[in-house]
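Hi everyone,

Forwarding the result from last night's run.
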Amino acid sequence: MKEKIIYGFSFVAAFLIVTLLMIYASSAYRNIFKFDFTPVDNKSGIKPENLSKASFDNKSILNLRKELLDSLNALKEKSAYDTLTMNLKDSTLIDSIQYYLSELKKLKTEKGLLSNQTQVPVTVSKVNEVSKKDSAYKIWIKNTVKLYEAMDSKKAAKIIQNYSDNIARDIIFAMKKKKAAEIIAELKPEVANRIISVQ
């Protein structure tokens, strides 16, 4: 417990020291966060705290005005340069985007022409293939159901639980209710629940 208090106190002390150093450094130097450690120089010799008490003469006001205008001009030139470079970058970016969009449109039209020529036979053959598989599957389910209905429920349950869930579900739902109930009763509860669950 004593060690925790010492660690906590040392952490708070280090935090306070670093905070005070940062406050001092930020007031003594221009911008410590950009690593600009040039000292702040008040040419007029007026500190911000004494600003309301200070008496201004015409020379100091003119000097302050000149410094302010110079700094604003420097910022204006820098921002104009930044705006110019951004406009150049934006225009090149827009040009490249327009080029790629036109290429994409060309590819789509070429693909559309090719797919329109070959699309109909492919879809018809796929439909025929799927319908053949579907009708063969239905015939297989019908014959398998007849076979399992004639078998003993325990033996049929052992065989059915080795099928995938979808096939086992199709077989059980195609059976007569009484025989399907007997087979489900012989299955493990987890398997029965998995097969019968809604999907």
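The CA atoms of residues 133 and 139 lie 10 Å apart.

Cheers,
N.
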